[in-house]
Amino acid sequence: MNVQMEYVVPDGFVFEKAQNVMHGRYGSMEFLIVPMMTENQFQIQLYADMEKSSKKNQFLEYLKALQQRHSFVQYAGYDGKDMVSVYVASKEQEDKENLTLVISELTGKCEEYGLHNCCSSCRKVRPLHAVTVDRVPALLCQDCETQLARGMDEKREHLLLGVIGAVLGALLGSVLWVVLGQIGFIAGIAGYAIVFCAIKGYELLGKKLSKSGIVICVLLSFLMIAGAEFTSLAVTVYKEMGSLFVSSIWDAFGWIPELMQEPELAMGVGKDLVVGYILAIWASYSLVKYSWRQAGELQRPHTIERF
Ligand SMILES: [Zn+2]
Which of 269, 270, 188, 195 is nearest to 234 (CA)? Predict the structure, then answer.
């Protein structure tokens, strides 16, 4: 593309050289236009509340027609969330006219169909600022700008619900541990299931998994592994001793401290636990590492530049 940007910007628009983006308002709509030098084209970005509109399908039909009507429109489409993109091929002297034509048409359609600009992060219709987020142009509302700069995800974590989810998940994994233990299998492999179900449970109910959430899940899983082992032991006691000595599974738990005096039994439980913990750590290591990195990515502060 061999054009001087100042000859290309539509009237009323500004070209930000450092961020390589034009922005401005045409009628009631704000646009971002990104020059793509190597592709020899411009990307017109329009963030609009399409998902809330009953006219979405008509607008998509219009975009298809737009691409067919103008030879300089290489592509006109919608990302399925909030962004309409129109790629305009550079024709040098005609660029300003072509860009102005497209944004005036888009504005006309938005006004006809009652569409509004929306925040590119939370998609709410609010007053917006043109910014770059880690060098990527965006239109953000004040709340999202503050949150992204601070490094918070827009999804809020529900700690209490997350913990409840983790407990339920870990209980589910513990059932597997007890069942495997009873059929004489190495219960330790269920250690992975406990960690996995705890993390998934936390994510499901807590809506988001933060680093502190992961720490809670791991600690909880380690407690649950010990809990599962002793439950398994209680089930064995109940089955072996019969209803004469232990009337219920709860009674069986009462016998455990006494039974642990037996070195042989204590050794057996200890061995089970060690194997269980080693297998749990070995199997869930990559899951925890992956989740930790994901959580870090979401919590990372972003560089926001206004223009
Ligand atoms: Zn927002």
Answer: 269
